[in-house]
Amino acid sequence: MAQLWGGRFTKETDKLVYNFNASINFDKRLYRHDMEGSIAHAKMLASIGILTEEELDQIQTGIEGILEDVENGSLEITEEYEDIHSFVEAVLTDRIGDAGKKLHTGRSRNDQVALDMKLYTRDEIVAVRTEIYHLLETCQNLMEKNLYTAMPGFTHLQKAQPLTLAHHIGAYMEMFKRDYSRLTDIYARMNYCPLGSGALAGTTYPLDREMTASLLGFYGPTLNSMDSVSDRDYVIEFLSALSLIMMHLSRFCEEIILWNSNEYGFVEIDDTYSTGSSIMPQKKNPDIAELVRGKTGRVYGALLSLLTTMKGLPLAYNKDMQEDKELTFDAYDTAKGCIVLFNGMLKTMSFHPEVMEKSAANGFTNATDAADYLVGKGVPFRDAHTIVGQLVLHCIDKGISLDEMSLEEYKAISPVFEEDIYDAIAIATCIKRRNTIGAPGPEAMMRVISLNQRWLEENQDK
């Protein structure tokens, strides 16, 4: 059992207690970040005279060698070590001797693990944000291609008004832009370095915390040592952002699952993102969409778990906080994988415009426009609403749409109707006339697509 704290103890830790306490099985994922932080710490120690240049060279070369051996598989991180910090320090000391024992000067495992978790989370934020950006590019491309693809819009899962596929996808474009923005905000808020905070009260060594922060790409050092070692807000914020991303993906998946059904027939999911049935040869199941929808709860669970873990912890560090890792790592992996798979599914999906437009025409989605037509002829809106309700009831009785009614049938309900009613309620007209910013009309959508393109260009290199 490789431990960093044995001097105070006269008895060997019980094996069950050791295993329960150890974190090496999951925090070994932090090996690269731990070594990166250790090299920066060593450089800072050398700058203030605690390490000689020779010792710094030994430490840096030793850590780089350990990193290379871990990544090429010649060195295994085993359960012999309590945690990733013990592993790095023990192997380093074994390889370079006494210089390795000086590495931990001026730091504690408390600020060390806080640093490792920040570095790891920071990398994951960048990785997830990159995948969200790729998904936004896909949405933008689909919007550009489907400016005139008519479809029904829904409220309460009932056909409501006609719009376009570009407009519908544009709603998710806005959601994913907010997700991207949230990730950027979290990065900016968390990007301060806790290393040098010690266990909770700093250290008597004259550490140059600004130098360490700069070496590791932080904006600066954290300003309170107690908060530094006990803060996991950035993990909770990231899990919250991931939960929102998963909620947005899940909503989109639910719609794709519906659109892919025989009853809708709006889309066909590509074979590469579908599976079949073991018993029913005709089936083509939207499994990826269903799994993304299902895995949303898994990410929610990680958020709730960490919130519950942190809710009653007094300052500063408590061992409970070791529970920030397993579910968090799983949530990071799950969300990132779901974004990538969803984007691939969306890119390769086939849309059926003729089915979508027919569905819009047959669902009385142009009823509001019929009422607006009457208002334009001087009929009060409340009376127009009643008249169009009678039209719809007549169509339901006869099994026809508003477009299929004869002018005589229109006039029998209201003499105000003239031949121009057919152009007024044409699906293309209904959409074309809605051109306030944010509406589905082509002029409005072209403005939005242009704004989106500018947004994508501004955020391309972040």
CATH class of the largest domain: Mainly Alpha
N-end to C-end Cα span: 44 Å
User: Can you count the beta strands?
Assistant: 4
Q: Helix coverage percent of residues?
A: 55-70%
Main sheet strand line-up: 1-2
CATH topology of the largest domain: Fumarase C, Chain A, domain 2
Describe this structure in words.
- With 462 residues, the protein is mainly alpha-helical.
- It is built from 20 helices and four strands.
- The protein has helices at 15-21, 24-27, 31-47, 53-72, 84-96, 98-101, 109-145, 165-190, 209-215, 225-230, 233-260, 287-310, 326-348, 353-361, 367-376, 381-398, 407-413, 421-424, 427-432, 442-458; strands at 150-155, 158-164, 267-268, 350-351.
- The chain has a two-stranded antiparallel ribbon.
- Helix 3 packs antiparallel against helix 4 (53-72) and helix 3 (31-47) crosses helix 7 (109-145).
- It is elongated and about 100 Å long.
- It starts with 14 loop residues before the first helix and ends with a helix.
- The relative contact order is 0.10.
- The mean pLDDT is 94.
Quick summary:
The protein is mostly helical and 462 residues long. Helix content is 62%, strand content 4%. It has three domains: 6-105, Fumarase C, Chain B, domain 1, CATH 1.10.275; 110-147 and 164-202 and 221-352, Fumarase C, Chain A, domain 2, CATH 1.20.200; 359-458, Ribonucleotide Reductase Protein R1, domain 1, CATH 1.10.40.30.
